[in-house]
Queue: 2 jobs
Job 1
Amino acid sequence: MAAELLDVNHLTVRFGGLTAVNDVDFSIYPDEIVSLIGPNGAGKTTTFNAVTGFLRTHAGSIAFEGEELAHLKPHQIAEKGITRTFQITSLFPHLLVLENIRTGRHLQERVTLWDVLFNTRRKRRVEEETREKAEDILNFIGLVGKKETIAASLPYGEQRLLEIGVALAANPKLLLLDEPSAGLNDTETQGMKELIRRMRAKSITILLVEHDMKLVMGLSDRIIVLNFGKKIATGTPGEIKANPEVIKAYLGERKGDAKR
Amino acid sequence: MLFVQYVLNGLIIGGAYALIGIGLTLILGIMNVVNFAHGEMYMLGAYFLFTFFSKMGLNFFLSVLLAILTVMGVGFLFEKGILKPLRRRSIDTVMLSMIGLSMFMQNIAMLIWTPVPESIKSPLPMETYTLGGLYFLPQRILVICAALLLVLLTHLLLKKTKVGKAMRATFQDLEAASLMGIKIDRIYSFTFVLGAGLAAASGALLGPIFTVHPYIGNLANLKAFAIVIIGGLGSFAGAVTAGLLLGVFESLGAAYVSSGYQDAVGFILLIIILIKRPTGLFGKVRQLR
Amino acid sequence: MSRTRTGILLALGVALIYPILITDPYFLHMAILVGIYGLLAISLNLLLGYTGQLSLGHAAFFGVGAYLSSLLFLNLGISMWGGLVLALCGCGALGFFVAKLAFKLRGAYFVIMTIGIAEVLKLVALNWVDLTKGPMGLTDIAAPQISLGWVTIDFGQKVPYYYLVLFFISLSVILQHRLVNSSFGRAFVSIRENEDLAESVGIDCYKYLVTVVIISSSIAGIAGSLYAHYVSFIDPGVFAFFISVNAVMMAIGGGQGTQAGPILGAILFTLIPEWLRIFGDARMAVYALIVIFMVIFMPRGMLYYASQLLNLGKKSHGR
């Protein structure tokens, strides 16, 4: 098996008296699509926030390609190659769709203040590159026609696509998607599924938090299940479906019907 | 002994500072309004005292009361006329509007009362009393007694009365308070009027001690903000403590360092607090956004 | 040639021949002030319009620039050119410290702190009489002369000074344009739009905030220096709250976060206080009403509402 891309060990995150993530271990391997599932409040988004540097960890290690991430700031973690989307739609609302994507490309733009002030050749080349790459991404996510639209005025489903586009612009190796299909209708969810597969085909490893069981089962190579902050199971979709612990945790929720 | 005298003087002025601070921390904490016009309530308190007492010859204590009530009325108009319509706007818009309002008030005051600084002669005897080696001016004793009384009354209001509880509930969680049936509009009005009244009281009490001119609100405002931030946003105890501390440090600073920089003491303390402990002495983590 | 390009060249053309068309010294004086305050407005617009941080203490940098430049001239005999450099560096350094201090505080806390800093500096200027002559202020701050062969340009005269200010404004407009249309500009705007998202794609918001504050404060410092050597007299009033407020009105009134906004705002808010003189003592009261009106009813600035009115087919671009 290839070396782990992301190796999380004994991760613990606390909020005051509440332990939201409790001694969680898991690994993600390159080119996988892994889903992180669990009932509400299980600690899934908290895990995302810890991995991407938005929350401090109280114990444990988060190693990405062998490097420890636990005390880095979000922008440093993005530099290492991990980006994410957020549970609540998170865009640059007043900017055009194209500008949203261009902003996402920040890490790839190696210009200094000198370059900018003196409008050097390098700066102009980088601007051109950014423009091209942004168009590529827009094509990839299917929003080329809307590139001059203001982000806040996009319909909800397209906003969610744009979010992924922005995260992609940073050229990540690992992409964390927080409930990408929340609020999407059937057609949009199908589109999202295909987009995720296309991203994996481009060698982007995907870790997603999801409540839509049909999507999870149909898309994932592996599934990690959390409940009350602890990992209770991990395995292939088939294994998880049959896992008694998992079924117990979801008792009261009908499987495959947890979509909002 | 001189040191104790300075501390005492500082506590007296600090008592008045506490009043402005309490008003502002309530407005800031409960209404989320950055009230840059708060200093002007202080200024109007002093000027209305001047009008009622020095110009119209009414009884001093009655004049103080009337001044406070008048400013509360003005505050009520501001809240209903300006703050309420702006409630959904961004915090920057409200801030800048209040700044505009503050400039407007200063200049209206200048037109009404002229820019010539006035002094209000205290009706109390001007001789100092000594007790245990310390000197007391009756006007200053009045200030500290009145300040203590008002702080106590406000504390009781917040803790014991229905409206006080509603105010505290609104501070903690606006949505929950409104869902519980608390009429937020009324609470906001009440809070603003209360804050204006306390600031006016401060202005009226300090009026006879310092000169009165249209721009005294500026410094009062900045000090009030310093007190609120140092004490902790929305914290009653914090505003009182910070107010007293500011008074004492200003007094000591003027005595031992330099009187010219007296007004800078507040900012220096503010900057120290912002670096060391941005939530303030008693504050909980809450962002002003 | 694009419409914007034509507009800019036209404006530049008018600006270049302005002193030839208008010889009345009063209007030249106004134009110079518009230029100096325009620099201040551009500097504030970078901070407020692009990164979205409101500063109500920009008079601090303006005043420090004025005093540094003046003191360098009066005490060490170094001409305005040196003063400009010192103002740029000194205010840049001050900006660095303010930024480090202020990054932890946002929104209203930052605003209050900027006000406080300007007030403290005013108190220092008032009380450090040995250095600043206190409320008496500094006088005879002369502008330099340059000898080019047989021609001497005396910047103590209005016309040459006008072109000097025009030069600096043009430089700033170019700088602003280049910054805005770059990864730096996009980083600045991302801070205003969504800081968490910006961080998540690798934008170090702290670094960019510090950068913009330093650039902003440096330009404001240059404005202060140009002011001092033009009016040749300064006092602690250069730290006045009114200057900070008026600068904000320029940045907002013209149109926040746009490139033409600050210039338009500078024209408006240099002229408005002048026109209000007809109200005599009520002048500032009317000004305050204008502030309230603009802030509430025209938060997007004149440019936006004017273009809506005239229905120019402008690409709807950000704020």
Job 2
Amino acid sequence: MRWVAVWRRNFLVWRKLVIASVLSNLADPLILLFGLGYGLGALLPSVEGMSYIAFFAAGTLCSATMFTASFESMFSGFSRMHGQKTWDAILYAPLTIDDVVAGEIVWAASKAWLSGATILAVAAVFGLAASPLVVLALPVAFLVGLAFAAVGLVMTVLAKNWDFFSFYMTLIMTPMTMISGVFFPAEQLPRPVLAVAQVLPLYHGVELVRPLVAGRLPTDAVVHLVVLLVYAGAGYAIAIMFARRRFSA
Amino acid sequence: MSARVSALKARALRKSYGALEVVSGLDLEVAPGECFGLLGPNGAGKTTTLRLCLGLTHPDAGEIELLGEPVPARARQARQRIGVVPQFDNLDPDFTVAENLLVYGRYFGMAPRAIAAKLGGLLEFAGLAGREDARINTLSGGMKRRLTLARALVNDPQLLFMDEPTTGLDPQARHLIWERLRRLTQEGKTLVLTTHFMEEAERLCHRLAIMDRGRLIAAGTPRELIAAHIEPQVVEVHGNGYEAWMEQARRLAPRVERAGDTVFVYAADVAPVLADLRGRPELAYLHRPASLEDVFLKLTGRDLRD
């Protein structure tokens, strides 16, 4: 449990910068949610039996969680690893690079969870998520956070410079957001595109959260959970492998 | 355990990066309570040696024992009783002085109360009493170095590794660090430092090892090194006609070297050299006892290392 000290270090920084941090993680998704949700939603009939804004709220919860986890593990993580040499300082203590990787991933997932949970709370306040089942979306948000934090940290320990992240963001995250059912049902996509979405983690997060927001239990929940767990677990293992190579070669 | 267990022992250590062997068969032994200096030009392998001893880098071959623990196998347990002052400050810029110490203590599993109890003493040691709420970017280079030193002491380590502890500091800041390091030695802590300041090594270290191209080329107390490796007297000569004079000097002293426009004459007795120079007003000269720097330059050469 040595990694907890790494988590607490990041938490203390976050607590000192809490207003700027929360604002930057929530302002964008909430503006998008209400802007598109009410604006575009007024033109649309219900989608999958929900109002468009409720439909979109479930997607926003997942995409905001993904973005927070990714930004924290990649940009903030790289700054701690490379710029500030915070990881080096930690490694003089009786911690190993494995502890640092675990602390960073759980931290980014925690911060991401807060984004998801806040969006869920806002949706509930606006009557978009009325069923008690939405509470189950909270652990799902943490799992989505873990999956993207782990993948993000793989990028971080491989990165030589900041530009490296642009490739991942532009070539993977942005298209993934488009095809994973955040803005519209993924099922209306051409088969091959849907197949791509189904091997990526975001789709499975959305498939779990959206029924819960609508007050139903998700179908194939086990499959979706397993995919997210595999991304989190494999990401963690791969991040550790490359981090060891980078730090103790 | 015997009465004299080494604080640090390394045997036949090897480490390569690609085709370059950075550490090539290094043997090292540091006694408890000793201040040990590892000297060497840039690229000699000093920092890699420290990283190997800490278990941060795994050796290709060789054995390391740090405070009785085999490294890297039990490096984590060893590091529980070790402090590290790195070459480049890596204090946490988001935290105050006190928060840096608090967060660092937590890495050692220390309870908040235990860290709080140490805070006053550490701040006093670092000459930062009253500055606990200062942000890191408001501190001078010397203050940051001292805080890094205090941070390395938060776990009350038995042994401190310091990689060029005074590089980049002004003389005032350097003297203050030296004074603090001597205090630590008096308290019985073992110090292992790398440096390329000979003055620092001569003032602080009980024992030194000179390292070049990945291996130790000499070891001993500063006096022993000077006695064993170099003639006791030096005359430095420069001015018009120094090149022609070098030929004359070679007849008067056993060793004559040139670096740039200066001639270095080494001998046990330099009286004939000085007598000759008194008749040559065009040449300026300085007569001094041989120093560790002369030993260092003799053993590692005068060529630039980049």
